[in-house]
Amino acid sequence: MEASAGAAASVFTWQQSLQRAVRSTDALLQALGLQQSDVPDADAASAFPLLVPWEFLQRMRRGDPADPLLQQVLPIRQESATVPGFGLDPVGDAGSMVAPGLLHKYQGRVLLIASGACAVHCRYCFRRHYPYDDSPKSQADWEPALVQLREDTSVQEVILSGGDPLSLGNSKLETLVTSLASIPHLQRLRIHTRFPVMIPHRVDAGLIALLQGTRLRTVVVLHINHAQEIDDALALACERLSQAGCLLLNQAVLLRRVNDTLDAQCELSLRLIDVGVVPYYLHHLDRVQGAAHFECSEAQGIALVEGMRARLPGYAVPRFVHERAGEASKSLIR
Ligand SMILES: *Cc1c(COP(=O)(O)O)cnc(C)c1O
Ligand code: SF4
What's the rounded Cα separation, in Å, for the pair 76 and 80? Predict the structure, then answer.
């Protein structure tokens, strides 16, 4: 499918888009034509502040308090509830840190927290309590991680995550990728990002040149939860990444009132395939404090994936997984 040329063009740079993103409940509701009384649970004073770019906001349905995109970003009072079993570090990040910002949980691949910043604040984020202030942010801060990587020849793949690694500018990113590419035993670079979804023109000429220029095989893992998130601008961003030689995958989180129906999941998968992105993981919610109201049961997830398998080509059915601290991989539920 051809995305119309120029769909990702914007009068703003991506940095400007991030700067002018909506940061208050009032502004968000006003932009959507909603009254306070339409969303009685909205919380204007959350410790994890609201952040949503206009480019994403424009894909929400005006006047609909149940919009699946709005649900992902609107702070509500239920987030302050203390629910047993929901903690601050649900996947054991703290225990697998082998150098500042470098998490080594699984064989052959490591995850580098390349930046603490994101283009959006997802209310269910499992790293919403992560101590980003203590994380490396510059080439000098990454040096201990790079030293560790040079020494550990068992590692073939580095995953840039965060936060969102594309919140680094192209020049910082290029310095980091060049350092990684100079380590002979590294073969693959993976980028876990929601930036192209939130601000599609983040996929600019500089980023494409950087990705095309590295010797590392590059996999970009997007995070899209609902078909409505995929507009022409995002489709074009995906097309550019594919043309740059990146393999595109998606991870979604199963979320109550966002994508917990068979129709929503099937539409998401088919829409992803149509823009060249393979559904990779459907995550069972990580039990992070503040996100309990998003949780679906495992049984519901299993039923959804089986329903998808009955309706969709095999390649369009994601693996339904859960991360359990201490295990050798994500655990396959179905
Ligand atoms: C999820 C994760 C990975 C990647 O796992 P895959 O199954 O290869 O996608 C790697 N390292 C860490 C620390 C992770 O949390
Ligand atoms: S983009 Fe990813 S890391 Fe950032 S808030 Fe959303 S889920 Fe969390």
Answer: 8
CB 217 within 8 A of CB 244: no
Torsion of CA 201, 130, 109, 117, to 10 degrees: 20
What pLDDT, in 10s, does the model give residues 96-107? 999 999 999 999
The span from the CA of 245 to the CA of 218, in Å, is 7
> Residue written as tokens 């059915």?
317
Nearest partner of 169 among 122, 202, 146, judged by Cα: 202
Q: What is the pLDDT of residues 205-246, one digit of tens each?
A: 999 999 999 999 999 999 999 999 999 999 999 999 999 999
Residue from 91, 102, 104, 105 to probe ligand 1 pocket by mutation (most atoms less than 8 Å from CB):
105
Beta pairing class for 331-332 and 109-115: unpaired
How distant, in Å, are the alpha carbons of 133, 172, 182, 199 from that of 234?
30, 24, 32, 8
Alpha carbon 313 to chain centroid, angstroms: 24
Q: Is 105 in the pocket of ligand 1 (CB under 6 A)?
A: yes
pTM: 0.96
Pairing of strands 319-322, 331-332: antiparallel
Beta carbons of 312 and 266 less than 8 angstroms apart: yes
